[in-house]
Structure prediction request, 528 residues.
Amino acid sequence: MKILKLTIIITFLYNNLNICKDNMNIVEQNLNKFNLTLPQVSIPVANYVPFVQTDKLIFISGQLPMENGKLKYAGKVDKDISLEDAKLAAQLCALNILAQVKTCVGSFDKIKRCIKLTGFVNAPEGFAAHPQIINGASDLLVNLLGEKGKHARAAVGASSLPLNAAVEIEAIFEIE
Amino acid sequence: MKILKLTIIITFLYNNLNICKDNMNIVEQNLNKFNLTLPQVSIPVANYVPFVQTDKLIFISGQLPMENGKLKYAGKVDKDISLEDAKLAAQLCALNILAQVKTCVGSFDKIKRCIKLTGFVNAPEGFAAHPQIINGASDLLVNLLGEKGKHARAAVGASSLPLNAAVEIEAIFEIE
Amino acid sequence: MKILKLTIIITFLYNNLNICKDNMNIVEQNLNKFNLTLPQVSIPVANYVPFVQTDKLIFISGQLPMENGKLKYAGKVDKDISLEDAKLAAQLCALNILAQVKTCVGSFDKIKRCIKLTGFVNAPEGFAAHPQIINGASDLLVNLLGEKGKHARAAVGASSLPLNAAVEIEAIFEIE
Prediction:
């Protein structure tokens, strides 16, 4: 009888630890599923920090589409760079945001949700498709984080962006 | 003596319940006073949500001047669209913001205050009257919410905006 | 024995009050060190307020490079105004932000930290040096506030700004 109880407890613990392990890795699993890797976190070239945590909110500095320390997508959208590439630029900004969040809190399973994105598109006058571009970031967050990835958002046009980047995105996250 | 006390208590409760009722409706009363109606809330066309609440803060996604599901004010301010119409566009953005707040919390009397507006004006180079345009939103909030409507604000020029909208405004509200 | 205890307590209090006094004045001391003075706080010309405090966060309205109630740096950066002057414009925006923070909380020693800056640069198409310009503000905050001055940041280009200002910066601060 005691052995049975012990077996049940051990099985219970084993299953739950497994669930925990699965939960902890779901974002990494999803990254693999979509053939994506987190970029190395970009170190700000200027006198500011990549994120600031206050209580349960994390403010992430505006992220550019950087990969291996280099800007991957530059120029004015729909002129120097296609809509498809601009959407990939937004996706890469979001990957950089996630890399910063992970650096800040250590593990993706501490994310309660993504609160807000503000997406700036390096766009010419009369451009109107900002939402489609910034969807590159929003879709990624929902694909990777599920319900926790659903955020409030503003998407606007910028006359120019740092390093002539095609897109810049800043974010606010809430942690558990 | 007991009856007198009871009468006082009942009168007190009745008056206060009335005050409560009046408070609940003051924003709706003000909407009527200014001949305004809340637009139907716009459903985001993209993979994000119109608002996210975290603790007592509500982050409202950037709202365009939409009415009955259609963009009412498009184009570059002071070129395609007059300053007066641009101010009405800002007012309509604010009405959409209030409609989202109401959808989020159910009743206007749960609003503690409007914390912050960020107003983006689709403006040509050298344009300088952003404050007057965004006043269309700020005046509305103060007219409808009184002291609770007074907010911090930034107003800036955007080279372009989603759907070629004349104005886009995002907001942060605090609830009780 | 009692006198010894009393002396220790008085010495302890005296030293700590001194430490307090030093802390209270360190930002003012740094302002003097860098030959800077806080500008008079600008009163918003429109129907909004210069700051809103919610719990421990203060949202500061977008500040322009104002001195003695007048705009000091106008025009498009790298066209009408040099990069050096634009950086000074960003510094002046940050001084206006600090003046608003002080008006809000009374003393600089209540600042826990600067959470976030959003810097808008009145920049022509293809401009890429926004970080260097907004460093005028970031460097100032770190020079004056030390570790407490380190913030998250976004820097973007605006097609135009209120009063044709060269720079506009908004901020979020956390207080103790």
User: Anything to note?
Assistant: Strands of chain A lie at 51-54, 57-63, 66-67, 70-71, 111-122, 152-158, 167-175. Confidence is low (pLDDT under 50) at residues 12-24 of chain A.
